[in-house]
């Protein structure tokens, strides 16, 4: 049972434009969602999180939106930069603070 | 430098051999975890610990053992390596409780393991 689904394996956007990465979930029992970024040959890096009681959280160029009725969340990056090119993981964190990873979306930001 | 240190970075094992992947953190984090990442997949949780002396199983624990005798160290033991354990292994640590969700886990740079 894949609790967190990232249905788009890849996304390509032009530098300066908005990148929107999507994530669907199947189990409503969660406390937080977290987004991580991963470059090749490195460990994942924490970006931003959102709790189940909120519908939006932003940090600089990164904003995460949570739609509980649709069981959907998205990460917006504005403006996108070439250095944002990486794999992005949508992760669920339950009440025991364990992380469950999605399969990831590879973002390419074209100069 | 503060952070999560994993050793070795690369390892080749023969089927049936045993080894220990080392993980150390100097941030006084309570929570520590081990993940594996296979091609085209997300990271899957192997084992985790919420403090010294406390460990529990994750999604894919079979074939792996862990112990947590100190806050700083969380080694992962492969008892009898199999080709299916060929993967990249990541160790992670975080502050406890609510702060885990706010600040996330800090990951090491990984150990690439090949079992032949």
Structure described in brief:
The complex is a heterodimer of chains A (111) and B (116). Chain A has 111 residues and is mainly β. Helices cover 0% and strands 55% of the residues of chain A.
What are the key terms here?
heterodimer; A: 111 residues; mainly beta; 6-stranded mixed beta sheet; B: mainly beta; 1 helix; 11 strands; 5% helix
Describe the model:
The complex is a heterodimer of chains A (111) and B (116). With 111 residues, chain A is mainly beta. Chain A is built from no helices and eleven strands. In chain A, the strands form two sheets. In chain A, strands 2, 4, 5, 9, 10 and 11 form a six-stranded mixed beta sheet that branches. A five-stranded antiparallel beta sheet of chain A has the order 1-3-8-7-6, with no helix packed on it. In chain A, β9 and β10 form a beta hairpin. The relative contact order of chain A is 0.33. With 116 residues, chain B is mainly beta. In chain B, the strands form two sheets. In chain B, strands 2, 4, 5, 6, 9, 10 and 11 form a seven-stranded mixed beta sheet that branches. Chain B has a four-stranded antiparallel beta sheet with strand order 1-3-8-7, with no helix packed on it. Chain B is built from one helix and eleven strands; from the N terminus they run βββββββββαββ. The interface between A and B is medium-sized, with 24 and 30 residues.
What fraction, in percent, of the residue positions of chain A are helical? under 10%
Question: How much of the polypeptide of chain B forms β-strand, as a percent range?
Answer: over 45%
What is the alpha-carbon Rg of chain B in Å? 13 Å
Q: Calculate the mean pLDDT score of chain B and round it.
A: 94
Number of strands of chain B: 11
Assembly state of the chains shown? heterodimer
The coarse silhouette of chain A is globular
Supply the helix-strand structural class of chain B. mainly beta
| Residue-averaged pLDDT of chain A | 92
